[in-house]
Amino acid sequence: MSDALLELSGVHTHIGAYHILHGVDLVVPRGQVTLLLGRNGAGKTTTLRTIMGLWHASQGSIRLGGEDITRLDTPRIAQRSIAYVPENMGIFADLTVKENLLLAARSAANAAQMDGERLQWIFGLFPAVQKFWNQAAGKLSGGQKQMVAVARAIVEPRDLLIVDEPSKGLAPAIVNNMIAAFEQLKRGGVTILLVEQNIRFAQRLGDGVAVMDNGRVVHAGPMAQLAQDEALQRSLLGLSL
């Protein structure tokens, strides 16, 4: 197994008076796609937000590439070659698609300075990004916005990509496009952590899987093992894949 790029050990998170995460242990191996599954309210999104410092762990540790990032604020975490696409996508509706990507291209002061070769690669992954390049992002469909959100996250090379429910509400054709994009990113050496409810999406992409329930990881192992064990699926997820 690859070494761990990201590791959570005994992570607890409180939001106000609410104790959401209860000692999360999670290992994300370098160069792999790890799926975070679980019922609604299990703590998946809170785990991602805690990794990114949007909510701070009240106990435990988070290590990225061996560095303890538990107490860092979000901008400093984002500087460590990590990109996050939240469930709501975080698109700036009044800005054009080009301007949305430019915001994330830290090495470019204007669009002309953006990496042209990388942009062409992104256009190949997500043709809609090129098609609507100069249009306001808020006018795009949900699937097109999701493509823009992922494109923005990878407009510069990243070691780790964290995405919350990338296929939510997308048409099957766009889901297939998204799967192909993540497969290509993985082949390029990007480590990916996904929260996902689309089981076909999870099965096709996942190398490893962690299942959460009540703020804890209750199962971790190969995705293929979970996909083949119907009894385990029903026990952990309350359904059959």
UniProtKB/TrEMBL annotation:
PROSITE patterns: ABC_TRANSPORTER_1, ABC_TRANSPORTER_2
Key words of the record: Amino-acid transport, ATP-binding, Cell membrane, Membrane, Nucleotide-binding, Transport
Protein name: ABC transporter ATP-binding protein
ABC transporter domain residues: 6-239
GO MF term list: ATP binding; ATP hydrolysis activity; branched-chain amino acid transmembrane transporter activity
Gene3D superfamilies associated with the record: P-loop containing nucleotide triphosphate hydrolases
UniProt cross-references to Pfam families, sorted A to Z: ABC_tran
Organism: Comamonas flocculans
Family, per entry: Belongs to the ABC transporter superfamily.
GO biological processes: L-amino acid transport
